[in-house]
Design goal:
- The protein has 347 residues and is an alpha/beta fold.
- It is 39% helix and 16% strand.
- The chain is built from eleven helices and eleven strands.
- A seven-stranded mixed β-sheet has the order 9-8-7-10-2-1-11, with helices on both faces. Strands 5-4-3-6 form a four-stranded parallel β-sheet, sandwiched between helices.
- Strand 3, helix 3 and strand 4 form a beta-alpha-beta unit.
- The longest helix has 16 residues, at 47-62.
């Protein structure tokens, strides 16, 4: 039986994040789009749940520890560093040069040691992070939490995030991005055990190959942190293969700007990709339908670098064309009701 520590013992304001409802009109049909706002966790992302679950369950097995190390592209490292600071545990976070300035500053502000792993020839950034974290763990006798392979990662979502979402369902479809694979696998396992609640769809760019092979000719560079992955996830192997929707980065970046300008949603970049995947699916339905989107973090992690880092990563013509195409679609979105969004400074 899965542990319920995540529900009963967590001393932080993690979980019970709001589900914000929007209405949008596509092809003359009114659909419901629901946004699970994981940005409202205490440390700002869905990875708060993973960091707490992985760490707390590890401590339950090992007893108290003085120091831990793990690899992260950003959000998990930020959450783990913050939790460890509160618990008096020294943390080392191994990340990549692509880490956002927001997450890097947050990790260091929490008193953790941040190591940037440079890949060897032919080595992916993820593989470099994991390799360096393992080397540090062995050399310094630290506890290596290994979130990318640890089954506690998807278990956090199977036993915590997904039940929380579907307590407000059922829905016609549920949308997540793959990232490291934990959220997607956790939701897949939960929905397999509870058939009829929703169909699960993964949303990512064409170059991602976390669960299915990247699209032919898609290139080998991802431009948005956490939006897909170029390594096969340790949690892949879903049977049957997951439903996949490919949404390109120029469209995701353009929609991020539009959502921000219209003050519709304060979600992060990968979350916007997930929302676009849901909109794409809804546009193909022949009856009013509902789609729930698991939105990993908030826009505050990207706004400072949006114009200087993210927009220049794609062709300007593609970005401008996407803005023109998506403007009327996003213009139909209306928030259906005010949601009591929990502030990060209190409940």
């Amino acid at each position: 039986m899965p542990s319920r520590t995540a529900f009963t013992d967590c001393p932080f304001r993690i979980g019970k994040t709001p589900l914000t409802r929007y209405e949008l009109v596509l092809n003359g049909l009114r659909h419901e789009l629901l946004v699970k706002e994981e940005r409202c966790n205490e440390f700002g992302s869905v990875k708060d749940r993973v960091a707490w679950h992985v760490l707390s369950q590890t401590l339950k097995k090992t007893g108290p520890v003085k120091a831990v190390v793990d690899a992260s592209s950003g959000n998990y490292g930020y959450a783990l560093a913050s939790i460890c600071q509160r618990l008096g545990i020294a943390a080392t976070i191994v990340s990549s040069p692509s880490i956002s300035g927001y997450n890097a500053a947050g990790i260091e502000r929490a008193g953790a040691r941040l190591i940037i792993a440079e890949g060897e020839p032919g080595e992916s950034s993820n593989a470099a992070r994991v390799r360096v974290a393992g080397e540090i763990a062995e050399a310094e006798d630290l506890v290596f939490l290994d979130q990318y392979s640890n089954p506690l990662n998807p278990a956090a979502h199977e036993t915590w995030t997904a039940p929380e979402v579907f307590a407000e369902g059922p829905f016609d479809a549920c949308f997540v991005t793959s990232s490291s694979g934990g959220t997607a696998r956790g939701f897949s396992d939960y929905l397999k055990a509870h058939p009829g609640l929703a169909k699960l769809y993964l949303v990512e760019p064409a170059a991602s190959g976390a669960f299915l092979d990247a699209a032919p000719g898609a290139g080998n560079k991802l431009k948005i942190p956490g939006y897909g992955s170029q390594r096969r996830s340790s949690f892949s192997g879903m049977k049957p293969d997951p439903n996949m929707i490919r949404i390109d980065e120029p469209s995701t970046l353009a929609a991020f700007a539009l959502l921000h300008e219209h003050e519709l949603a304060q979600v992060g970049l990968s979350s916007v990709g997930v929302i676009l995947g849901a909109i794409d699916w809804l546009s193909q339905q022949e009856r009013p339908s509902s789609a729930v989107c698991i939105c990993a973090d908030g826009d505050e992690r990207y706004l400072e670098e949006f114009e200087s880092r993210y927009v220049p990563s794609v062709a300007r013509a593609d970005y401008d064309a996407a803005r023109e195409r998506l403007g009327p679609v996003i213009g139909t979105m209306q928030r259906m009701a005010n949601t009591a969004v929990r502030e990060k400074t209190g409940t």
